[in-house]
User: Fold this.
Amino acid sequence: MLRERIDDALKSAMKARDDKVRVSTLRLINAAIKDRDIAARAEDRCEGVSDAEVTAILTKMVKQREDSAAAFEKGSRPELAEQERIEISVIQEFLPKQLTEDEIATVIGDVIAAQGAQSLKDMGRCMGVLKERYTGEMDFGKAGAMMKKRLS
Assistant:
C-alpha cells in the first residue's frame, strides 16, 4: 500500500537523519493524506483514502511545486526553485512511472479508437477514460492538448 511506503520512508529518513528537505517533504505528504482522510470521514467513508486518491494527492503536490519553481525562476530566486525541484523528486518516488510523449500519443490513439471518438464532442468521454486508467502516469494538460489536436 502506498501510504505504508510513505510512512516507512519517513521513518527511515528520520532514523538516518537524512536531509531536512526530504523529511519535511515526507511529513507534508503525510499531512495531506491525513487531511483527505478527515474529509473522507466527514463523508462517511470510514476506510479513508485509497491508493488512487493518494496518487492524486501526490500528483497535485508535484504540479503545485512545478508552478512554484517556475514562479521562483521568473522572480530570480533560483535557490527557492531548486528547493521545489528537490521536493518534486521526493514526491515522485511514490508516483508511478510517467509515460513518455510517444507513449501518451499511443494511448490517446487507442482510447480514441476504442471509444469511437470522431470530434471534439467526444473529448470529455475520452479524457475520462484516460484519467480512469492512467491517473498519476501522465500530465493530463499535455494529454488534453494532444487529444484536442487529434480530434480537430
About this structure: The chain has a mean pLDDT of 89. The radius of gyration is 18 Å. The CA atoms of residues 111 and 130 lie 7 Å apart.
